[in-house]
Amino acid sequence: MHSQRNRWRRDRVLLLLALPGVTALLLFHYLPLGGNIIAFQDFQPFLGIWHSPYVGLDNFEPVLTGDPVFLNALVNTLIITLIQVVFVFPLPICLALILNATISERLKRLTQSILYMPHFLSWVIVVALFQQMFGNGGMLNGWLRSADLSTFHIVGVPELFKLMITSQVIWKDTGWSTIIFLAALSRVDPAQMEAAVVDGASAVRRLWHVTLPSIRAVIVLLLILRLGDSLSVGFEQIILQQAQVGAGASEVLDTYVYNHGIVGGDWGTAAAVGLIKGIVGVALVLGANRAAHALGEQGVYTK
Questions:
Q1: Pure H helices in the chain
Q2: Nearest to residue 62, comparing CAs of 275, 235, 262, 282?
Q3: How large is the average pLDDT for residues 117-129?
Q4: How far is CA 263 from CA 160, 209, 218, 238, in A?
Q5: What is the pLDDT, as a whole number, of residue 1?
Q6: Residue 266 domain-assigned (yes or no)
Q7: Of 1, 177, 37, 155, which is closest to residue 96 (Cα–Cα)?
Q8: What pLDDT is recorded for position 303?
Q9: Opening angle at CA 278, ends 241 and 238, nearest 5
């Protein structure tokens, strides 16, 4: 007890510095979890949580009975998640490896600065830029017309929507995502790399046997966190473009919650879908973390 009191006294400055962040976390992340009770109510805003009648599991009916609109949103979400995990997640790793191998420090810093800039643009600006570049009357089609070449449509085509939003995510966030991997690469043991060079290992073998194993823990950690957020595929980005391609191609779980809850006034069903999405996310994190432990990695937390 005395030792605990001494630690509190010793770390009081750090605890005071952490207090605003902890308070914000409690107020804006944990306290709102109580609002999930709406998923079991026929919620009416003018009645509030305390007086809205309970309806049991009625709000989960679209999920349990396979409502076509919900299934369409679920399928679109899973497809986009699969695309982004398979194709988008590895790109920052590859880019970080390329930057780390750059000999010129000045060139490396310049390239990093250019790659980081798109991250600071809002999705409104990013979507507008892509429309100006690849839209019907965009720069690309304007140049093709001036050269008497046939034009083609990318923006607003439902069949190409998933390709379009994936391209936007890659352009906007790949550079910024390299920061963590570059930090991990800076901790690669130079002695191991020098020993590999002395043993005659090629650049590919040094990459496979020295570099990647050194950052494997970071890759596993970020992959687990990405899986936990896998059912959230970019609400703002998609809702800005949904009117152009229609709900059939662009409806995902986040927009389903918005369209049915805020726009349609079906608060209970929207909350039920959001609750299920959160539970699945937690289950994915726990499952992926257990798999990481089985493979000898630390994961998000230790056993």
A1: 2-10, 12-25, 48-51, 61-64, 68-83, 90-100, 105-116, 123-134, 139-146, 161-185, 190-198, 203-206, 212-228, 235-239, 242-245, 247-250, 253-257, 267-294
A2: 275
A3: 92
A4: 26, 53, 40, 16
A5: 57
A6: yes
A7: 177
A8: 63
A9: 5
Residue 54 lies in a domain: no
Q: What is the DSSP string of 8-48?
A: HHHTHHHHHHHHHHHHHHIIIIIGGGGGGGGGGB---TTTH
Domain count, the chain: 1
Domain range for 124 is 67-294
**Which has the closest alpha carbon to 164: 122, 135, 138, 139?**
135
Does residue 207 lie in a domain region? Answer: yes
Whole-number Å distance between alpha carbons of 130 and 229:
25
Task: Give residue 79's pLDDT.
Answer: 92
Evaluate if residue 175 carries a pLDDT over 60: yes
Q: 135, 127 in Cβ contact below 8 A? A: no
In a domain, 10, yes or no: no
Give the CA distances from residue 298 to residues 274, 286, 288, in Å, rounded to whole numbers and listed in that order. 29, 13, 11
Assign residue 243 the CATH number of its domain: 1.10.3720.10
